[in-house]
């Protein structure tokens, strides 16, 4: 883990050295930035570090015939692998705690430091020209905003859904519009449907009004839209679940689907530490060659880690694209790798 953290920091510093020099970033700011960044680095590299450590340990034991001695004394695979599997579970629990307690705050801190001290003005201007997709945030008047796309430089919105709740979190009003633009004073929406809900009968539509164009009573400015943009990585599981529950009946199916994929991924991701250790163990115990044991173990670890993360990324993309249900997209690869590992273990041991 120390090696991974060191390499991560070294590569990140060297690739951004020009920015640091141009902005004349003070040393104390850099130290604060990278100290805040440490939990994120550890969470991202813990699984592959865990796998390499396990494979090197058991490959070394196999190379010195310790595994043969254990098998000869009557120990089966699960008894031999028990310490590594317990280790994987502990690392998974620590990774889960990191994701819940440290990473949300670390994400916000590093983002703030970077925006204030490290991003060049030209990059800020360029960023404002990029289209933002699936913009969601919680605004004033107890309103939830879902916007398919937003162009910061032209202040144009597309695919707008706004849900307003009362103090008891019942739906009070729903606004759906095809497009919107900031006039400099107010937001003007086009092809608008405003649905008012009955206060006595919860979530029952009372009035529906349709407008070709309408100036909206929305206090948020384009700058507020960018400031309040939802960042899933800065939310823990409880906060994200609460956010999803707030607009479960909003009708913004695409945004809801993406958030549900992120929710299940937050639970499934730490389990990956245990899963890839389980997947790598049978290969470590099957290595027979005394030559190149270390390189063989490293090669197996890299291959398993690469396959796991690529396959997981593809499944998440399919989930956010609507091809897989959210829970399936997050848990498919951990379940498949676990099944493959158990099959290999049962066949060879």
Summed up:
The protein has 349 residues and is an alpha+beta fold. Helix content is 62%, strand content 18%. The chain has helices at residues 2-15, 17-23, 27-63, 66-72, 77-117, 121-128, 222-227, 237-246, 253-286, 293-320, 326-348; strands at 132-139, 143-151, 156-165, 171-182, 187-197, 205-216.
What does this entry look like structurally?
The mean pLDDT is 82. The protein has a 6-stranded antiparallel beta sheet, with no helix packed on it. A hairpin with a 7-residue loop joins β5 and β6. It is elongated. The chain has 11 helices and 6 strands. The chain is an alpha+beta fold and 349 residues long. The protein has a domain of 208 residues. Helix content is 62%, strand content 18%.
Task: Please give a handful of descriptors for the protein shown.
349 residues; 11 helices; 6-stranded antiparallel sheet; alpha+beta
- The overall average pLDDT, rounded, is 82
| Overall geometry | elongated
Q: Strand order of the main beta sheet, please?
A: 1-2-3-4-5-6
Order of helices and strands: HHHHHHEEEEEEHHHHH
Determine the number of helices (DSSP H or I, runs of at least 4 residues). 11
Percent of residues in helices:
55-70%
Q: Which structural class do you get from the secondary structure elements?
A: alpha+beta
Low-confidence stretches: none
Outline the biggest β-sheet: 6 strands, antiparallel
Total beta strand runs: 6
Instruction: Report the end-to-end length measured between terminal Cα atoms.
Output: 30 Å
Radius of gyration from CA coordinates: 25 Å
Share of residues in strands = 15-25%
């Amino acid at each position: 883990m120390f090696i991974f953290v060191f390499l991560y920091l070294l590569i990140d510093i060297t690739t951004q050295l020009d920015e640091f020099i141009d902005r004349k970033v003070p040393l104390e700011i850099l130290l604060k930035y990278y100290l805040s960044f440490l939990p994120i680095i550890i969470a991202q590299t813990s699984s592959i570090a865990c796998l390499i450590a396990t494979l090197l340990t058991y490959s070394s034991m196999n190379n010195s015939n310790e595994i043969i001695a254990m098998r000869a004394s009557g120990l089966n695979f699960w008894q031999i692998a028990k310490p590594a599997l317990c280790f994987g579970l502990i690392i998974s629990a620590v990774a889960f705690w990191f994701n819940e307690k440290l990473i949300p705050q670390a994400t916000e801190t590093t983002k703030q430091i970077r925006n204030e001290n490290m991003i060049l003005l030209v990059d800020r201007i360029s960023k404002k020209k990029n289209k933002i997709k699936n913009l969601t945030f919680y605004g004033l008047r107890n309103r939830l905003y879902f916007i398919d796309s937003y162009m910061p430089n032209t202040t144009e919105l597309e695919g707008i859904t706004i849900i307003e709740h009362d103090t008891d979190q019942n739906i009070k009003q729903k606004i759906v519009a095809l497009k919107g633009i900031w006039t400099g004073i107010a937001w003007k929406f086009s092809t608008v449907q405003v649905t008012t809900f009955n206060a006595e009968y919860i979530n029952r539509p009372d009035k529906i009004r349709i407008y070709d164009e309408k100036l909206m009573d929305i206090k948020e400015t384009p700058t507020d839209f960018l400031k309040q943009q939802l960042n899933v990585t800065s939310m823990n599981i409880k906060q994200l679940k609460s956010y999803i529950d707030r607009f479960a009946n909003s009708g913004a199916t695409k945004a809801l689907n993406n958030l549900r994929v992120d929710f299940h991924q937050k639970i499934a991701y730490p389990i990956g530490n245990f899963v890839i250790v389980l997947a790598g163990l049978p290969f470590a115990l099957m290595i027979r060659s005394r030559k190149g044991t270390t390189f063989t173990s490293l090669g197996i670890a890299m291959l398993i880690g690469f396959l796991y993360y690529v396959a997981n990324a593809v499944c998440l993309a399919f989930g956010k694209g609507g091809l897989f249900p959210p829970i399936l997209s997050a848990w498919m690869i951990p379940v498949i790798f676990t099944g493959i590992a158990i099959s290999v273990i049962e066949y060879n041991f």
